[in-house]
Amino acid sequence: MVKVVKKKKKKGLGGMSRSSGGSSVETSSLRPKLIEKMPPCINKCPNHNQIREILMTISKAEDYEKTYEQVLEETWHLFLETTPFPSVCGRVCPHPCETECNRVALEGAVGINSLERFIGDFGLEKKLVPKKLTDEKRAEKIAIVGSGPAGMSCAYHLARHGYQVTVFEAFPKAGGMLRYGIPGYRLPWDILDAEINRILDMGVELKLNTMVGKDIPYSDLQEEYKAIFVGLGAHKGLKLRVEGEDAENVFTGTDFLHRVNEGEKVDIGDKVVVIGGGDTAIDAARVALRLGAKATILYRRTKAEMPAIDEEIEGALEENVTIEFLAAPIEIYSSNGKATGMKCQRMELGEPDSSGRRRPVPIDGDTFDLDFSTLIAAISQAPDFTGVEDLIEGRDWIKVDDKFKTKIDGMYSGGDNINLDIAITAIYHGRRAAAAIHESITGEPIPADYGQDMSVIDSKLMYLTYYEQKQRVELNHMSVAERFKDLNLEITGTLAQEDAIGEAKRCMSCGQCFDCGSCWSYCQDNAIIKPLVKGEPYKFKMEFCNGCKKCAEYCPCGYIEMH
Question: What is the pTM of this model?
Fold first, then answer.
């Protein structure tokens, strides 16, 4: 496990002793040591994308005499080492990489997500092709069940190793929850299609409208394929367990979004109520607005506890979605087979529950009524395990080991059928499962995750005064009035190249030398050798070092330690 470096107080420069001739006498027995550390962005990224290297490659382009065209292509390939979906994730990821960015200690996190989007779109525009790890075409055939982010990630990484991969998808189009669970105004389908087609162009076969377990028995796959990866996704919305929810105008959030994204005309009337606080609830409400209804979200906690992406919550509020906080449904009113309204219970927050959030507690006698033309329950979702019931263990979903192996030999799994999580987590599952499948066939060990033995660098261990204040470049958003012209009109723009480069230059290269020369400048004893070739490591002449600690104290990124 990655350990976090604890707070360390910077020591002053006083107490140094100098001889009359200007040469130093020893002030400390400690000596400098170069120790790379894990930046918090990579530590928080579930897929461990090489964020620091990507941003610093752009930032140092001119120093290393490279064109921006060159470095953008290099950084695209760096993303493609871990994920085949930079353009997709640059639009839909809640960017946990930014939450603990050390730049927050200055003026705000680096816009890592917007840069991923820019670099991904650059790759699409230039029609860049992923690099395979071998030109060999292997004889082994691998089956992937489900074409969501987990399945397509697994297929991509296996294709890089030369395997013959076939993806079986139950729906008419590929993409899983990326296609059927996210509205087009957030993730345009041409972007999703382009990144999926790039995987297919690597030789991956796709069989649509084919439900394994129903159209094809799993036993057939086990006979024909060397290994099977199961990535079903979670397309089944959970019900409220409130009487009256079986009415024809009551949908689950996943069912509603699936229907709309399939192109079905859904009659929702003029007043929609959505229950839930996650991304599906926010998406459902904003889609309802685009279909011409007034939308209200009912959430049993406060805004601070909402699991939805902050930007999406703010977007919904900008578009005049009403959010009733601290309220929950307790009864649905029906008339002539249709739900017409419901009784709601006012809540207050009690003690934290197992999720760490404060538990909502009913306020006795405090209820109110809410009428609607359509009710959408977006409280949670689950996979459809039809055909793979043997993989389920007790009340749990599919269980896997640390190599994503299931209890059935030769079968692997990942994504939402293990546990509900974000797309980049599913992408990680697919990547690591692909490595495990490759290991089982060839004996080649699975590469360790980057930074496994590194400590995480904290801003308190950095010399932040070195860095120039630079305000974060935010993405442009379409005006609210323009957003409703088309249901699938993308409302957020991609950074211009100049802005993307400027944002990359805000990266502080936490825990890794970026050739600033501060250590060399502050050393008065010529104990540091500055490399003649930029990018090569600095070296120490320890026989000249007196332990003054200036190199460590003035190292902006915390790369130098005294030992």
Answer: 0.93
